[in-house]
Amino acid sequence: MAEITKEQVERTADLIRLTISEEETELLTSQLNEFMKYADQLNELDTENVKPTTHGNDVKDVMRKDEPTKWITQEEALKNAPDQDSGQVRVPSILE
Q1: Residue ranges of the domains in the chain?
Q2: What contacts 89, CB < 8 A, 6 or more positions away?
Q3: Against a cut of 0.90, is the pTM above it?
Q4: What family does this chain come from, according to its entry (predicted)?
């Protein structure tokens, strides 16, 4: 991979409106180039027989089974409502 230049770091900092000093520019350039060297090492690995993964761990479905269930009736749901109208719970208005 191509080496990251000081000008690229300065341009990127300018694009994200980040003010960095000359020393910080030098440090970031050096650190980013070290990172790129590490990424190049990873590209050298033989991954021919490695299956692609989306998760590091096995993902299992933890949801309950979708089975029919007997629900309460509308009358049972409304029996404890302090105020109701036309089969619906009535609440105070929040808009003026």
Answers
A1: 6-43
A2: 78, 81, 83
A3: no
A4: Belongs to the GatC family.
Architecture per CATH, domain 6-43, reads as Orthogonal Bundle (1.10)
φ, ψ for residue 65 (rounded to 5)?
Answer: -70, 145
Residue 35, both tokens: 């990172």
Sign of the Cα pseudo-torsion (65, 69, 74, 75, in order): negative
The two structure tokens encoding residue 5: 């230049």
Burial of 9: CB neighbours in 10 Å, binned 0-12, 13-18, 19+: buried
CB 51 within 8 A of CB 59: no
pLDDT tens series, the chain, 96 aa:
689 999 999 999 999 999 999 999 999 999 999 999 998 888 888 888 888 888 878 778 788 888 898 889 998 999 989 999 998 999 988 987
Tokens for 19, please give them.
């003010």
